[in-house]
Amino acid sequence: MYTPSPMKPGSGSRLHTKPYKGDTMVIDKNPQYVATFDVDPQNGFTPLCPGELPVAGGDEIIRELNEQAKYARYRLGSKDAHSLSAVYNATEVEPQFTPVNGYPDVDIKWNPHCIIGTYGAKLLSGLPKETEYDFFVWKGIEPTMHPYGACYHDSAEKLSTGAIEYLVSKEVRTVIVGGLATDYCVKQTVLQLLRVKGLTVVVNLGACRGIATATVEAAKEAMVKGGAVLIQKASDFESLNVWPL
C-alpha cells in the first residue's frame, strides 16, 4: 500500500500527483484498489448501427472489456443517452462536423446516435446490464449538452457525474479504461481522471476503437502526456509494476 507522493519536480505537464519511485511511477495492482471504466460501449458506435456513428471494430471490444474487469474490484460504465431534439443532431442542411454556435456545451454536429429507447443506445451484447455495474453514468441527456468525458456533464467541468467521487470514496488507486471512441469520449474521460490526485490511469487499447487514425494518434499522445499508461491488451496489466516517467 502506498501513500500518494507530491508531484515530481520538473514534471510540469502533469496536472495531478502520482506515487513515484526514482524515475518510475508505482502502479497499484491490488484488485481492492483497482477499478475499470467501460466508456460508451454502445451499439450506436459500431457497424451494428451504420446510420449512426459506426466505429470500425467497435463491436469487437467486448472480450477485452470483460477481461480487464477481472483485475478490478469495481466496474464503472457510461453511455450516451441522447434526445431526438438535440441541437447537435446533424441534418442535410447542417451535416456532421458543422460547428455549433450559441451553446457552450456543444461544439459540432453529429449524426443522430444513441437516442434514448433505441437499439443504438443499448450496451453491446455480452457486457453487464447497466444495473449490474458498480457505478453507471448516463450522459448527454440534455438536448443542449453534449459531453465527451464521463466524469462531467458540462464542458466547464463543474457538474460532476459522480464517477470521480465514487472512485475516491472507494479509495481506488488505479483505473483501467476502455470503450468508444478512443479519440473522443475515451480520451476526454481519461484526461478527466488524470486530474485526480493519486490516481493512476491505464488505457487498454485492445478495449478501444477510434474514428480516424490521425485523431486516435493525437489522443494517445495527449493521454500519455497527461500521465496515462497505455497497454495493448488486458493481460498486459499483469506485468505492470512501475512505469517510466
Beginning-to-end CA distance, first to last residue: 20 Å
- CATH-defined topology: Rossmann fold
CATH class: Alpha Beta
Percent of residues in β-strands: 15-25%
Q: What pattern of helices and strands is seen along the backbone? A: EEEHEEHEHEHEE
Low-confidence stretches: 1-17
What shape does the CA trace take?
globular
Secondary-structure-derived class: alpha/beta
CATH superfamily: Isochorismatase-like
Q: Give the biggest beta sheet.
A: 6 strands, parallel
List how many beta strands DSSP finds: 9
Approximate helicity band: 10-25%
Structure in a nutshell:
This protein is an alpha/beta fold.
Write the layout of secondary structure elements.
Elements: E1 20-21, E2 24-26, E3 34-39, H1 62-69, E4 74-80, E5 135-139, H2 163-169, E6 174-180, H3 182-193, E7 200-209, H4 213-226, E8 229-231, E9 242-244
Parallel strand pairs: 3-4, 3-6, 4-5, 6-7, 7-8
Antiparallel strand pairs: 1-2, 2-9
